[in-house]
Amino acid sequence: MSVAQLLDGTAVARRSFAETAERAADFAAAQGRSVCLATVLIGDDPASQTYVRMKQRRAAQLGLESRRVRLSAETTTDEAVAAVRALSEDDTVDGILVQHPAPAQVDELAVFEAIAPKKDVDGVTMHSFAAMGLSANGFHSCTPEGIVRLLDAYDVPTAGRRVCVVGRSAILGKPVGLLLLARDATVTFCHSHTTDLAAQVSEADIVVAAVGRPELVRGEWIKPDAVVVDAGYNPGNVGDVEFSRAAARASYITPVPGGVGPMTIAVLMEQTVTAAENRVR
Questions:
Q1: DSSP codes, 98-148
Q2: 94, 122, 205, 240: the active-site residue
Q3: In CATH, what is the architecture of 142-261?
Q4: Is 55 a catalytic residue?
Q5: Buried-most residue among 3, 31, 90, 148 (CB within 10 A)?
Q6: Over the stretch 117-160, which tens digit does the pLDDT of each residue have?
Q7: Which three-class secondary structure state does DSSP give residue 67?
């Protein structure tokens, strides 16, 4: 029995990081300042703190300035919006990342909308969502864009392929479907009200699991030689797909970790440098 080839996001991201670091250095030399990414963390969720530290560490490695804004768990929507709006108006900030999720009392969409579109390097505003849907200029949601670039890196064709996206979040499931639709894939979205999820998955040439439930997608559901992209990350380094059994059927599969995650950060860093370059043109 053959085993699927890994879609190695770590290796692909490494090449992107090298290019981004070079562009960041060129920008700093020309402008007399470093590219600046501002991260906004609301509350004290441990996973969110870890993700922000990872992004800050990578920014520093690539020569970007990382500015951290920490807001308490009791922060109101108005307070968070004001903090983000101030960053949008700050000429020394090139990109803004608001770490998801926010505490329950915060209207996350309102906070996202306080990000100026030209600084929305995480692709979370309605402007960016429309740009993805209309194939117009704008920043893309980082994880969906990272998935598309990972497929490209391994020459995985999408035109005419049947894609099953398991999950419909506004920051992952929906936008990855839009990006693949723009590449002429036939996209089916599955969610908590989908009847017979197994049947939907089993017909797909490409499966994107993005629901946040450990091993929800069973290995036996995978169509032989399908491509499996697991965008889930659950405690214990477990994805949304039953990895070992899926790998025995698929042609390509992402590891967890080391698949989608590094690509997300690579896109974030690249789009931040692009935002800085766009602002001085």
A1: EPSPPPTTS-HHHHHHTS-GGG-TT--SHHHHHHHHHT-SSPPPHHHHHHH
A2: 122
A3: 3-Layer(aba) Sandwich (3.40)
A4: yes
A5: 148
A6: 999 999 999 999 999 999 999 999 999 999 999 999 999 999 99
A7: strand
CA atoms within 13 A on the CB side of 217: 36
pLDDT digits (tens, 9 = 90+) for 177-192: 999 999 999 999 999 9
**Predicted pLDDT of residue 1:** 52
| Nearest of 272, 275, 268, 263 to residue 8 by alpha carbon | 263
> What is the rounded distance in angstroms from the CA atom of residue 172 to the CA atom of residue 177?
9
Catalytic annotation, pick one of 56, 94, 99, 271? 99
Do domains 32-116 and 142-261 share one topology? The answer is yes
Could you tell me which of 276, 263, 281 has the C-alpha nearest to residue 141?
A: 263
Is 184 marked active-site?
Answer: no
CATH fold of 32-116 reads: Rossmann fold (3.40.50)
What are the backbone angles phi and psi of residue 229, rounded to the nearest 5°?
A: -115, 110
- Answer yes or no: is 43 a known binding residue: no
